[in-house]
Amino acid sequence: MNTSMTRAMAAAGGLAIAAAFAVSCSATKDATKDAMSSASSMGSSAASAAGSAASSAASVAGSAASSAGSAASSVVSSVLNGTPTTLNVPGMGDVSLDGPTAAAYARLGGASALGAPTAMAEKIGDGTVQAFANGTIFTSPAGSYLVQGEILKRYMGEQGGPAGKLGWPTADETETGGGSKVAGGGWISEFQNGTITWLNDGKGTFAETVTMK
Hints:
The radius of gyration is 43 Å and the shape is globular. The strands form 3 sheets. It has a 4-stranded antiparallel sheet. It has helices spanning about 5-80, 100-105, 110-115, 150-155; strands spanning about 85-90, 95, 120-125, 125-130, 135-140, 145, 175, 185-190, 195-200, 205-210. By secondary structure, the protein is of the alpha+beta class. Residues about 1-35, about 55-60 and about 65-80 have low confidence and may be disordered. The protein has 3 domains: about 50-80; about 80-145, no CATH class; about 150-213.
């Protein structure tokens, strides 16, 4: 075999190897591209599924919170609108508040201010008396009003309560403008037929005054 043929065969072999290598590289690139595309697609699907799950969970949680808030708002609204309310009191059981009494109880601060009921409601004439730990709400055609402390003791005792000469309360008991620590300061309750005050004489001693209309 002469030198020319040898060189031609060598060149042909080199071209075949180069072609095979090119095909191999192309196949590898295509396989890599396909694998990357598949991985990207799987990642996108997983992210989409995770996002959808998170969105669904957030939607469920938001719906539950909204429902709970709506229910709480409905209860508060019902009480303030004068819907009769039943309170379960340990040692007493269920205590029913009529609509106006329930509304006054909520307006005056509820359990945090007045505590729990200490007795069942008492009917007196055309009204209702509901005692709580920190005061009593009197409900009548004159309205629903709170009387507390020493004035309550005098009103329900020596003054005979709603059936006495003072009649039913016409306003919530209030503290005088100067407060209970100054001379002439203290508390006052207005009734249908008069007023009861419990005032400081300036020396820290308090006294009751009943003024009829």
